[in-house]
TrEMBL record:
GO biological processes: homoserine biosynthetic process; lysine biosynthetic process via diaminopimelate; methionine biosynthetic process; threonine biosynthetic process
Cofactor: a metal cation
Record's function text: Bifunctional aspartate kinase and homoserine dehydrogenase that catalyzes the first and the third steps toward the synthesis of lysine, methionine and threonine from aspartate.
Kinase keyword on record: yes
Name of the protein described by the UniProt record: Bifunctional aspartate kinase/homoserine dehydrogenase I
Catalyzed chemical reaction(s): L-homoserine + NAD(+) = L-aspartate 4-semialdehyde + NADH + H(+); L-aspartate + ATP = 4-phospho-L-aspartate + ADP; L-homoserine + NADP(+) = L-aspartate 4-semialdehyde + NADPH + H(+)
Organism per entry: Mucilaginibacter ginsenosidivorans
EC number from the UniProt entry: 1.1.1.3, 2.7.2.4
GO molecular function, one term: aspartate kinase activity
Phylogenetic classification of the source organism: Bacteria, Pseudomonadati, Bacteroidota, Sphingobacteriia, Sphingobacteriales
InterPro entries cross-referenced by the UniProt entry: AceGlu_kinase-like_sf, ACT-like_dom_sf, ACT_Aspartokinase, ACT_dom, AK-HD, Asp/Glu/Uridylate_kinase, Asp/hSer_DH_NAD-bd, Asp_kinase
Gene behind this protein: thrA
Length: 816
């Protein structure tokens, strides 16, 4: 025999009830007569509870009562043949009349006891089961409505009653024997005490009813039909990437559900475990999906954990004081007290010094817990052996669960790395003695971020999602988005990384979307955005969104964003930038960026600060971190100047070559910004600092290649005129070089802590002689590379290669 339990959403609409009947027909057709356990229609238990509260406060509840009636009556009209409708209406109406009388009573007395509340809540399951049993009877005439409160006997703990299994099993077996050949439709959730007063088994308790019947009848299987594809790696409402688990052990299912995976009610596992009955969680809305089997033995899995669950609102109470040290009876006294007062403790941690005990309770219990502790330990408090218990609110629990954790080292490291990198502060930690779970207490607003970050960290077979916030939509920004769009599939398949652009801003508009902006329509969407650009607002919103694995990308050349870097690092967000201004301003700021990023466990990548996409910064860092020491760096790092000298040959004159470079977009609006060497200087400064030198901009000696008149010209036009007038100066330079068979090169050098940029003539044996286009070249002479330097050479300017460098940095953030 099988038990089939259908949850609230499965019986929440005419369509889903239709599916339920189809499932039953199939089961029935295979010769089975299952026991069917039903929940109240979705939302009904909450509605009843709200009505009870209203009544107790003397408020009007009639609108909700009418809503409840209508929902059930409409269902009867839709799903029952006309000739069967009246008896159903009559039975339901009797229920609603009783309910109304009860609520009136509560309203008159202005008192709602747990006992009355249970009685009120019981109408949800009674109405739904009555109604569905009538509908089923159209197809299965042997259908029989069963009020489980007559069969399941409990203690008097209303709201969360404990079952007397022995008596209950006897009653269920007896009932079955008296009703052979019937197909039972059983109310979930409800039971009764010795005095036959209605009790309930706790919210979500219909699952438990199914297991109780399964155990009493030695069922072959307990099926829990719900609205998701079985037990998943996390709550799919919180973690979009959650996937369903084919198998779980009873312990794993118990731990996951205990820590909030409400897809199954934790006590359900106990009777099933005792009788070794498999529980199968199935989806009413995807009938063919296999779902999850919970059983004793599972196939070995290589997943380090099975799932992550969470309780999204808890409080913790901290009890602290010298009076606890070495007092063996203290915690016994504390926890017996809380048990006596029916305060449910979700989790306990004790510091190794025994100086404090922290435990988590539901927020509704926290004040009561503090009060009773105050009373029980009054003397200790007076004697200052104990401090006043403190309550902390607005917290959540996140737990990772799986039996494999026991054998796998490094699980907690991975958990804390993911939390730390995302700036999630862990308030307390508990590892179950079974080692099947590690649970952490974190602040409630961080829960969604934490769940997603931890899910990404453990389920690496899925893509890790990076949330990027991009500033600047000029050449580089636009090219980056195009590259991301072109490579997104490759990136997911080969790097396991999915990049979502969660925010974009230029100087006019900004736009956000936590699910990722469209990579091909972002321009139109940004244009149409009604949010005006506001840098501080952009940063604030990025922080506010609190997404996991966040990266801020600065694709501007403006000093404005730099002011926010420190704050961004402090918000545990990594920074990728092609903006050189930050790293080339004061040394103190340069240091502070690194220190702050490190302190907050995030990345600061700026490969494109030097040589666009060429791997220069990375090479230098690798050399340094592997213990090498830089003796000398020589470099050509101005793509613009390279271009100019590579074209300043034969009959070409200097003025025309500069103009050509400008027309091709290789120069700054004022070409002198390149020719004066300022940009080159910034790159040399960053390299020198990365090589370990504490240097300021003024420490880089620059030899100007321009005569005074060109430097002093008031406007760009005047500058071009001056270039023409000084033509002889440049021509002599060129002719001298050509006569000697040499090439003109503007070369940066770092040696013995001194940096300079000078105009030099190099002969054909020099590695810098052969250059083309806008090539950059850098040679590192180090302790290891001392005979032949390590050389990196290639195109060092242009949107395509710069964006590619930013892209690579972004992927490196994802890899960490
Ligand atoms: P029913 O009404 O069928 O009893 P519940 O609402 O009690 O259904 O439980 C199903 C819900 O549990 C799902 O809709 C889902 O949002 C939530 N849930 C939380 N954690 C998990 C998880 N790990 N796997 C699947 N569902 C989960
Ligand atoms: N209807 C009850 C509740 O909502 C029991 C259940 O659905 O399992 O808690
Ligand atoms: Mg449920």
């Amino acid at each position: 025999m099988k038990i089939l339990k259908f949850g609230g959403t499965s019986v929440g609409s005419a369509q889903s009830i239709g599916t339920v009947i189809d499932i039953l027909k199939k089961e029935h057709g295979s010769g089975e007569k299952p026991v069917v356990v039903l929940s109240a229609m979705s939302g009904v238990t909450n509605l009843l509870s709200a009505m009870a509260e209203k009544a107790a406060n003397g408020e009007d509840f009639t609108a909700q009562l009418a809503e409840l009636e209508t929902r059930h009556f409409e269902m009867v009209r839709t799903l029952l043949a006309v000739q069967h409708q009246n008896p159903a209406f009559t039975r339901l109406k009797i229920n609603f009349n009783h309910l109304e009388e009860l609520l009136q009573g509560v309203s008159t007395l202005r008192e709602l006891t747990p006992k009355t509340r249970d009685l009120i809540l019981s109408y949800g399951e009674r109405c739904s089961t009555l109604m569905i049993s009538k509908m089923a009877a159209q197809y299965f005439p042997e259908s029989l409505f069963v009020d489980a409160s007559e069969l399941i006997k409990t203690d008097n703990e209303f709201g969360n009653a404990k079952v007397n299994m022995e008596l209950t099993e006897l009653l269920i077996k007896g009932f079955i024997n008296e009703n052979p050949g019937k197909m039972l439709f059983v109310t979930g959730f409800i039971a009764s005490n010795d005095a036959n007063q209605i009790t309930t088994l706790g919210r979500g308790g219909s699952d438990y009813t199914a297991a109780i019947f399964g155990s009493a009848l030695n069922a072959s299987e307990i099926q829990i039909w719900t609205d998701v594809n079985g037990m998943m790696t996390a709550d799919p409402r919180m973690v979009k990437k959650a996937f369903s688990l084919p198998e779980l052990t009873y312990t794993e299912a118990m731990e996951l559900s205990y820590f909030g995976a409400k897809v199954i009610y934790p006590p359900t596992m106990i009777p099933a475990f005792m009788k070794q009955i498999p529980i199968v969680i199935k989806n009413t809305f995807d009938v063919d999906f296999e779902g999850t089997v919970i059983q004793h033995h599972c196939k070995p899995s290589n997943l380090p954990i099975k799932g992550i669950s969470s309780i999204n609102d808890i409080s913790i109470i901290n009890v602290e004081g010298s009076g606890m040290v070495g007092k063996s009876g203290f915690s016994g006294r504390l926890f017996s007290l809380l048990a006596r007062e029916q305060i449910n403790i979700i989790l306990i941690t004790q510091s190794s010094s025994e100086h404090s005990i922290t435990f988590a309770v539901s927020p509704a219990d926290s004040e009561k817990a503090r009060r009773v502790i105050g009373q029980e330990f009054e003397l200790e408090l007076l004697a200052n052996k104990l401090e006043q218990p403190e309550i902390e609110k607005e917290l959540a629990i996140l737990a990772i669960v799986g039996e494999n954790m026991k054998q796998t080292p490094g699980i907690s490291g991975k958990l804390f790395h993911a939390l730390g990198r995302n700036g999630v502060n862990v308030r307390a930690i508990a590892q179950g003695s079974s080692e099947y779970n590690i649970s952490v207490i974190i602040s409630k607003p961080d829960l969604a971020k934490a769940l997603n970050a931890v899910h990404d960290a453990f389920f690496v077979q899925l893509n890790k999602t990076l949330h990027a916030f991009c500033l600047g939509t000029g050449n580089i920004g636009t090219t980056l988005f195009r590259q991301l769009n072109e490579h997104s599939e490759h990136l997911q398949i080969n790097n396991g990384i999915q990049v979502k652009i969660a925010g974009i801003s230029n100087t006019r508009k900004m736009l956000f979307n936590a699910d990722g902006l469209s990579l091909d329509k972002w321009q139109d969407e940004l244009q149409a955005s009604n949010q005006k650009a506001d840098l501080a607002g952009f940063i604030a919103q990025m922080k506010e969104m609190n997404l996991p694995n966040c990266v801020f990308i600065d694709n501007t050349a403006s000093p404005q964003p730099i002011k926010f870097y420190e704050d961004i690092f402090k918000s545990n967000i990594s920074v990728v930038t092609c903006n050189k201004i930050g790293n080339s301003a004061s040394y103190d700021q340069y240091r502070m960026f690194r220190d702050t990023a490190r302190q907050h466990g995030v990345d600061f990548f700026y490969e494109t600060n030097v040589g666009a996409g060429l791997p220069i910064i990375r090479t230098l860092k690798d050399l340094m971190s592997s213990g090498d020491r830089v003796k000398r760096i020589e470099a050509i790092l101005s793509g613009t100047i390279s271009f100019i000298f590579n074209h300043f040959k034969g009959s070409a004159n200097f003025h025309d070559v500069v103009k050509l470079a400008q027309d091709k977009g290789y120069t700054e609006p004022d070409p002198r910004d390149d020719l004066k060497g300022t940009d080159f200087m910034r790159k040399m400064l960053i390299l020198a600092r990365d090589a370990g030198y504490e240097m300021e901009a003024t420490d880089v000696h620059i030899e100007s290649m321009l005569p005074k008149s060109c430097l002093e010209a008031a406007t760009v036009d005047d500058f071009y005129k001056a270039l023409q007038e000084e033509d002889a100066y440049f021509t002599i330079m060129k002719q001298q070089a050509e006569a000697e068979g040499k090439a003109l090169r503007y070369i940066g050098k770092l040696e013995d802590g001194k940096a300079s940029i000078t105009l030099q003539l190099v002969d054909e044996n020099h590695p810098f002689y052969m250059m083309s286009g806008s090539d950059n070249i850098i040679s590192f002479t180090t302790d290891r590379y001392k005979d032949r330097p390590l050389v990196v050479k290639g195109p060092g300017a242009g949107a395509e290669v710069t964006a590619a460098g930013v892209f690579a940095d972004l992927i490196n953030v994802g890899a960490n």
